[in-house]
Amino acid sequence: MKVTSYFEKAKGSTLISFEVLPPLKGGSMEAIFNTLDPLMEFKPPFIDVTYHREEYIYVKKPSGYYEKTSIRKRPGTVGICAAIMHRYGVDAVPHLICGGFTKEDTENALIDLNFLNINNVLALRGDARKFEGKFVQEEDGHAYALDLVKQIARMNEGGYLDQNIENGEKTDFCIGIAGYPEKHFEAPNMENDLKWTKAKIDAGADYIVTQMFFNNQAYFDYVKACREAGINVPIVPGLKPLTKKYQLNSIPRIFHVDLPEDLAREMLKAKTPDARIQVGIEWCIQQSKELKAAGVPCMHYYTMGDSETIRKIVEAVY
Ligand code: FAD
User: Which of 18, 114, 180, 283 is the Cys-Cys partner for 184 at CB 3.0 to 4.6 Å?
Assistant: First the structure.
């Protein structure tokens, strides 16, 4: 079923969804199941699986020189989606990115998804490759998520890259996109960022999942700004609990989001790792309760492999 159909069916009550990362290459599917098994009692109608592009590494050669090579450390997104659907009977939402994909790679990936009866995708640009300053599109690939959304929407109309294909199978993808309550870091301002978000909706995207945020007001202001800009699709808040002291620096650096002073202060005051986890859990519970009371369509938890923490939060909220 489509993600947006779940929202419609829920008739205003707040759903829960989870997001998992493929294990590092060499890992097993058990890692995913171990994360999800303890969370399935909360009945998520869909589970997202992230996509990780190749990255550069340097390998030392017998000559002593280093050779730059690229590897994908976390492959397996599509297989994991199929395994999740098979094991739990819920929908899986693969993330699909522009980075590393030609248009034909994208088309072929969408054909695989369609054949597997996976009818939801989160369409993203992806970030710059590690050690590359800015995002570089693949030759004959997409530069922005907007172009990826357009390609998916075209396939939903039976349009394939090969112009000779007549009466091509019409796919039926429900398309999610990313949204940034604190603005995408490359956008000059929120107005400009929302212009492109609106363009993705006009091109066929059906709903938005937000970047994590730790101050609900940022989400509420974002939803208001979206509505004023004519963006009327469901906007799902993405939530991640802070659990470690180093995240006070790493989360703002990696995800370009602010951490409220109160949260940072409590985190620094906590004396033990357990006490710090507790601070993060309490904060996320309060955020979740307020968002649920505001009637958000769904709460989307970034698990990052930590089901225990997420479980405690969801138990306290539902
Ligand atoms: P875009 O919509 O392409 O926007 C990128 C920037 O360009 C923005 O500043 C925007 O304002 C601007 N812009 C957009 N369209 C145009 C245009 N046509 N012309 C000029 N400027 C434009 N990354 C992964 O690699 N794998 C994942 O699984 C993944 N999952 C994510 C899930 C969520 C919920 C979120 C919020 C992010 C996720 N990301 C993931 C990270 C995401 O790929 C990055 O944030 C990336 O930098 C931007 O992606 P986007 O789809 O928002 O890009």
Answer: 180
